[in-house]
Amino acid sequence: PAKRNRIYERYVLAAKRIDADVRTDRTIHNRLSQLTLKGFLDVREQNKGPKGGSYYEYEFSIRADIVRDVLQGDSRLQELFDGIDGDMTLDKF
């Protein structure tokens, strides 16, 4: 699972790497909400008490290998997968 701010950080790195326009944190938050409503992501609220606060963690609700295969099929995203091995999660490509 990955927190929203970590997902956004990784998104910014990926967008810059492929020379795409970087969207705002709010836009990515809205996209995560849409993907959750459509069943692509699971979201879980974590509460670490008064000092840790509460936050949401996102995780694929579908098989990550399917997501990876679809994304690898897009030529614009190919370099994001160069040299990547193992499982794909929201926290790493």
TrEMBL record:
Pfam families: WHD_Cdc6
GO terms classed as biological process: cell division; DNA replication
Keyword Cell cycle in annotation: yes
Protein known as: Cell division control protein Cdc6
Gene Ontology MF term list: ATP binding
Family: Belongs to the CDC6/cdc18 family.
Organism phylogeny: Archaea, Methanobacteriati, Methanobacteriota, Stenosarchaea group, Halobacteria
Keywords carried by this UniProt record: ATP-binding, Cell cycle, Cell division, DNA replication, Nucleotide-binding
InterPro entries, per database record: Cdc6_C (IPR015163), WH-like_DNA-bd_sf (IPR036388), WH_DNA-bd_sf (IPR036390)
Domain Cdc6 C-terminal residues, every copy: 4-69
